[in-house]
Design brief:
With about 450 residues, the chain is α+β, with helices and mostly antiparallel strands. The strands form four sheets. Strands 2-1-5-4-3 form a five-stranded antiparallel sheet, sandwiched between helices. β9 and β10 form a beta hairpin. Keywords: DNA-binding.
């Protein structure tokens, strides 16, 4: 983009800022990426007149994070790769952690002094929810390289700055672990800088992958020296390294908060034991895994019992568990999202909820696809068995109300309506007066005119 085009774009951005300040509809001038970032920033209550990023880490905490951070050994590589810009433009390089907290920076004295004024310094946090739209925060938010130019920043104090940033992912864990950024004054940092920054991030990831493979090889040699090679070899993050020729575990095992045991697809329990810098997974078929029991019928709060621990569930978690119980072969995040939300679903939301559920129920939930891999008991599944057997007395005893009454999930509503219709039809056709009376005590039965009429017509006893 030429400087003339940048001037015109800057003027359109200024008009957009005026509209935001006046609460008007936004003009179409910002890029869609920037518009989406502005919306996230405003939802996080970022005020355009804010003047600095917050300081969140004192010196001792910064040093601890630096020493433990996986990018620390790669800092010379990052500096060397981006140092060539120093001879041409007044710029600085910044490296953050996955939360946008600045751990390292390099640059000339003049640009460093200007950066201090806005908190682009060690220990300050540049996530979008801290300072709004910016290269570091937006790159971390959308998980891809990003260039933010001048007035594209939501905060006005940043309009003299431009920045190009790229997230860096750890090939071992698959998680974003940090961000590399080049920042400078608006007129000196060309948008093409983002390509160099993205290449630098990829180079760092390649080095991380090389180090990971070296660690794997050292761990594999120790594993192969074991007599009989018992168990399956896992990395410290749960990545399968060796000992699973059938691939039944997939690429990764979710270790949970405590690496002690997990449930395999056949319902058996495997013990996870520390081994060198990784883990060994040893099947233990003689151990019976605990059952997951769900109580989702009626108007009361849905609960789940895992082993000997009962806990109430949020509606969303109960919906996910119900869908997994109804689809024993498993569902992808996309399928779960559609069944829960319809076309408006977001698989990212589902993955986050599954992560929280796995923290509660350990490895009872497997991935790729998501499925329950422990014995499952549920009141709505019991109803289905009684319906299949045509047993009205058992139905009347087991039916305490509709499935997840408050759920608006399209699939749950369909299942709820189908169960309700079948239970009602069975009891009206074959139920005794006692069966009908039990149904009349439920939230739907008490307003069912046909059921009440049938009971009223019975002779007094």
């Amino acid at each position: 983009m030429s400087y003339a085009h940048l001037d015109e774009y800057s003027r359109s951005l200024r008009r957009a800022h005026e509209a935001v300040g006046d609460g008007q509809d936004w003009p179409q001038s910002p890029r869609r990426l920037i518009t989406a970032s502005w919306r996230r920033s405003l939802e996080a209550d970022i005020h355009p007149e804010k003047t600095s990023a917050p300081f969140v880490l004192d010196a001792s905490r910064i040093e601890d994070l630096r020493q433990a951070h996986p990018l620390r050994p790669l800092l010379p590589l990052l500096i060397e790769t981006l140092a060539g810009l120093a001879d041409e433009i007044d710029h600085m390089m910044v490296v953050t952690d996955d939360n946008g907290r600045v751990l390292w920076r390099e640059g000339g004295q003049a640009i460093i002094r200007r950066a201090d004024q806005i908190g682009l310094a060690d220990g300050h946090q540049w996530a979008e929810h801290n300072v709004g739209t910016n290269g570091i925060g937006t790159a971390l938010a959308i998980r891809r390289p990003t260039h933010v130019y001048s007035e594209e920043h939501l905060m006005r104090v940043l309009h003299v700055w431009s920045c190009s940033a790229a997230p860096i992912s750890d090939p071992d864990s698959g998680q974003v672990i940090g961000c590399v950024d080049v920042s400078g004054t608006a007129r000196t940092l060309h948008p093409a800088t983002v390509a160099l920054v993205a290449t630098t991030a990829k180079l760092a990831e390649s080095q991380l992958a090389l180090r990971m493979h070296e660690r794997d090889e050292r761990l594999r040699r120790r594993y192969e020296a074991l007599r009989g090679r018992p168990g399956i070899l896992l990395s410290s993050t749960g990545r399968v390294i060796s000992g699973d020729p059938s691939g039944c575990l997939g690429e990764r095992v979710h270790l949970g908060n405590q690496a002690q045991r997990m449930f395999l697809r056949d319902g058996s329990v495997a013990l996870i034991e520390p081994f060198a810098n990784g883990f060994l997974l040893r099947p233990s078929p003689s151990t019976t895994p605990p059952a997951l029991t769900m109580a989702f019928l009626g108007a009361s709060t849905p609960t789940a019992t895992f082993g000997d621990r009962e806990q109430p569930l949020s509606l969303r978690h109960a919906e996910i568990l119900a869908l997994l119980a109804l689809h024993p072969h498993g569902l992808t995040a996309e399928q779960l999202s559609f069944l829960l939300y319809g076309d408006d679903g977001n698989p990212v939301t589902i993955r986050a909820e599954i992560h929280r559920l796995r923290a509660q129920f350990g490895n009872a939930i497997a991935a790729k696809p998501y499925r329950l891999i422990c014995p499952v008991e549920a009141d709505f599944l019991e109803l289905r068995r009684h319906l299949a057997a045509g047993d009205p007395a058992a139905l009347a005893r087991a039916y305490s109300g509709p499935l997840l009454l408050r759920s608006e999930s399209p699939e749950i509503r369909r299942e709820r309506d189908e169960i309700e219709a079948q239970v009602r039809a069975c009891l009206l056709r074959r139920g005794t007066p006692d069966d009908l009376w039990a149904y009349a005590q439920t939230c739907n039965g008490r307003d069912d005119y046909e059921v009440l009429e049938r009971l009223a017509a019975l002779p007094p006893t």
